[in-house]
Amino acid sequence: MESDPPASAAVSVLGHPGYAGRRVLITGGMGFIGSNLAHRLVGLGAEVTVVDHLHPNYGGNWANLAGVEDRVRVCLGDACEEAWMHSVVAGQDFVFNLAGQTSHLDSLHDPGRDLRMNCGAPLAVLEAVRKEAPGAKVVFASTRQIYGRPRYLPVDEEHPLSPVDVNGIHKLAGEHYHLLYHQIYGVRACALRLTNTYGPRMRVKDARQTFLGVWIRAALEGKPVEVWGGRQLRDFTFGEDCVEALLSAGGNGRAEGRIYNLGGLEVVSLADLAQMLAEVVGGARVECREFPPERQRIDIGDYCADWSRVREELGWEPRVALRAGLEATVGYYRERLGEYV
Amino acid sequence: MESDPPASAAVSVLGHPGYAGRRVLITGGMGFIGSNLAHRLVGLGAEVTVVDHLHPNYGGNWANLAGVEDRVRVCLGDACEEAWMHSVVAGQDFVFNLAGQTSHLDSLHDPGRDLRMNCGAPLAVLEAVRKEAPGAKVVFASTRQIYGRPRYLPVDEEHPLSPVDVNGIHKLAGEHYHLLYHQIYGVRACALRLTNTYGPRMRVKDARQTFLGVWIRAALEGKPVEVWGGRQLRDFTFGEDCVEALLSAGGNGRAEGRIYNLGGLEVVSLADLAQMLAEVVGGARVECREFPPERQRIDIGDYCADWSRVREELGWEPRVALRAGLEATVGYYRERLGEYV
Predict the structure, then answer these.
(1) What is the 3-state secondary structure (H, E, C) of B241-297?
(2) Which residues in chain B are closer than 8 Å to A123, comparing Cβ atoms?
(3) Pick from B276, B282, B275: which is nearest to B334 by CA?
(4) Which of A151, A168, A198, A156 is nearest to A302 (CA)?
(5) A48: which residues sit within 8 A by CB, 6+ positions away?
(6) Residue B147 sits at the chain A interface (C-beta within 8 Å)
(7) Is A1 a residue whose pLDDT tops 60?
(8) Measured over all CA atoms, what is the biggest interatomic distance in chain B, rounded to whole angstroms?
(9) Kindly report the CA angle at B330 between B326 and B336, in degrees rounded to 5?
């Protein structure tokens, strides 16, 4: 573990010269990770287009583009619409395929919608890429959820895949599409398996994106932080670190056809994480509760990633320590909570 | 290898008393395997309902129900329509979830349609089961295609899953749904991974269902049997044997939540299979040709299944030898080719 660098400055020292002046499409580009990527790419001098349908249950939020709204082309619509995606994708040099539905519980309540968002959308984007932008680099945001309950820790990319909810089944299919389109059509695609990602611009209205969002909101609103269970171990990636990984994957030919775990600097229990958050916010209360049955059925126990492959092949590693990341995140929402609830 | 029993009588000696008087739904029930299952279930005294949309590129064919059309309830429609599936599924004791798109090449040319047929349809059926018929037994027809290129032979159920086409990706998701609905909702589902299945009532119009179909048609029409490559090894399950496996899986509580490979008595090269077919038909010509590039990309090399798990747990084993199965199949199409082209 390293010392805590200042959150926002920590990662932007890395250069990504390959993006200056290039056309970059981000599906889900008004959501949490997509919008952080858009900000960074604007800073790198890229011509950025974002696609988002701004469904109220998802991560898309106009507030996420504050400061770059005049330097990003915004396309509002559904990435599942293949004919429309053809026109959006044509001429792009990079496609970050991030649009998706993230809530595990929503995927069980409305599996057909999850199918459309997590299979239909990435598939439509890939079809558009192979027909309209066959030379584009494509990076897919996959998830650790596809591993299911870990059989060993830390989990490396060879760990068996055994999704425990509909969302995981569909994200696995989404990842398979990207590898398949690389193998049979030569599409320059790769996939990153994200673990819990958090930071400014994440959804805090509810737990659809990450439980950390509702925790931070509760702490800032003076309500107790409710922890379900609490002994589960997790690793966390700060949003800016995740963005650097996406840029590294898109900018490095070695990534094509490959899969990479992302991870974090620390592995902590949820109870310890809540305690750390309470300290960062100052005076927040933590209440540990029993796991409700509906979540118990799809819980995966402990998880932490082995991210040595991405470090060795792409030179990426997480740089923002958990406390520093929480401080940056809490600072962001202290100023802007009203735009996110 | 055993001696060749008469094809049609070989397998019906097994009893399945659990189906008499029970309500059984077969999605894809006018297709190859579904209709053979319908015939057998009528013989067992079940109340059979078939769902089929009779798309011209799929396996559904009115001719397949000849002889039982008055003893089967036929529902023409799309299994993807969840609201409709609720009314069809309500009150069923068994659901054989067989509807699907089988062509690997079609899945690449129109992946969105494959998504709808191979993910949307089984998912709609499972949602209907858990809400309208939560006690029903469900058997899903999965496929060896999800293994991709075998890393070892024979392939057992622990072999890594690495689909090599869109169809395989979606069939894998379909299988995952069934196991997931068992795990989290207690749906009494299982999946059989079928290998090449052939026999009366298969599609012979083109290679969308199996290459053996077009071979038999060509041989009967006096045209050459065109073999692509020819050295690839395959195993084959005769349709009636497959039906017995489906019935065993539906009728045995031990199958719930389980996955089973099916297989065949013999492993043969495609060239040897074509030669055997030519002998059965009498005087047919075989022409071996180079693999076309489009198929090469998604070919899996040699395959044969280890089906010891299903034998040990459910007591099923293939009984119809390849030559006997080919003789029965050729005999069927000699009489009825006009109804299948």
Answers:
(1) HHHHHHHHHHHCHHHCCCEEECCCCCEEEHHHHHHHHHHHHCCCCEEEECCCHHHHC
(2) 111-112, 115, 166
(3) B282
(4) A151
(5) A24, A26, A29, A38, A41, A42, A68, A71, A72, A73
(6) no
(7) no
(8) 56
(9) 145
Cα–Cα distances (Å) from A8 to A13, A14, A318, in that order, read: 10, 13, 13
User: ipTM of the predicted structure?
Assistant: 0.91
C-alpha A198/C-alpha B273 separation (Å) is: 58
Q: Is the full-model pTM beyond 0.90?
A: yes
Identity of the residue numbered B182: H
Amino acid at B278: A
What interhelical angle do B82-89 and B121-132 show, nearest 10?
A: 50
Q: Which DSSP symbol is given to B298?
A: T
More confident residue, A15 or B57: B57
> Chain A partners of B119 at a C-beta cutoff of 8 Å?
115, 119, 173
| Chain A: closest CA distance from residue B142 (Å) | 15
Q: Is the CB of residue A95 less than 8 Å from the CB of residue A129?
A: yes
A184 touches chain B (CB under 8 A): yes
Beta strands in chain B (DSSP E): 23-27, 47-52, 72-76, 94-97, 137-143, 188-194, 196-198, 225-228, 233-238, 259-261, 267-269, 286-289
pLDDT (average), residues B272-292: 92
Q: Chain B contact for A66, CB < 8 A?
A: no
Cβ pair B172:A177 closer than 8 A: no
